[in-house]
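forwarding from the other thread:

> can someone predict this with adenosine-5'-diphosphate?

sure thing
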Amino acid sequence: MPPSDNRAAPAAADTDTPDTGSLIVFDQVVKRFGDLTVLDHLDFSVAPGERVTLIGPSGSGKTTILRLLMTLEKVTEGTILVGGEPFSHMRRGDRLVPASESYLRARRKTIGMVFQQFNLFPNMTVRKNLTEAPVHVLGLGKEEANARAEELLDLVGLSDKIDAHPTQLSGGQQQRVAIARALAMRPEILLLDEVTSALDPELVAGVLDVLRTVAETTDITMLCVTHEMGFARDVSNRVLMFDQGRIAEAGAPEEIFGDPKEERTKAFLRSVL
Ligand code: ADP
């Protein structure tokens, strides 16, 4: 395979030196679990406001990329930069030293993640789910946090559920609350990990509609692992097709879905479309 196969679309990443205008840079990132190499010298970058979809067979490393960005995993080799700053290290004077837990917590605040399982706090109302972290982590006043919660519930179409508990909501409604909760932290980056795969088919469309609205009405940078190819086509600026921890092909949705070049991409698309 030529080295250029592991590069993303030319607009955002086709050089060996990290692009300082990018919000997210993966520079020669290797992730291993024991003997298993999950990400293999991965290079890609994401510009501010870009919406990137990660597709590819199960086990190709997509979720690991999101988990690395959430600092739920550490890189084995290579560097991840977010906003030009490395994730694994922090500055002390003019030196870089390994990141402390409190530094990582602060970095994590700028990134929201929505998982396959909704992970709402089950014993709190929807309102409390949305205001807890803004009040306790960002230090927002109750009133401001409440106003933000109301605005976001309106965005996800659930204003009437503000005093409900998660158990009183359908899976699709819970996932819409989870999206609102992530947005309540005003993250710069939103990571979405197969957010519709645990839902009954009739609930998928509502969640995807909400994400379309988020994409259209905010300039939030989105990284999205999905098997919903229609959504990937509609919402993303760029699609990265992964295979065995490398980018097999990258391009605009119309290129990847309309005219894929790589046999692996064609085979994958045949299996999901
Ligand atoms: P994808 O999201 O593309 O399905 P993942 O990133 O979830 O792929 O996983 C890539 C590979 O890494 C899989 O083979 C998975 O079993 C393995 N893996 C992921 N997390 C761990 C872990 N914590 N320990 C061991 N292996 C893991």
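The two ends are 26 Å apart (CA to CA). thats all i got for now
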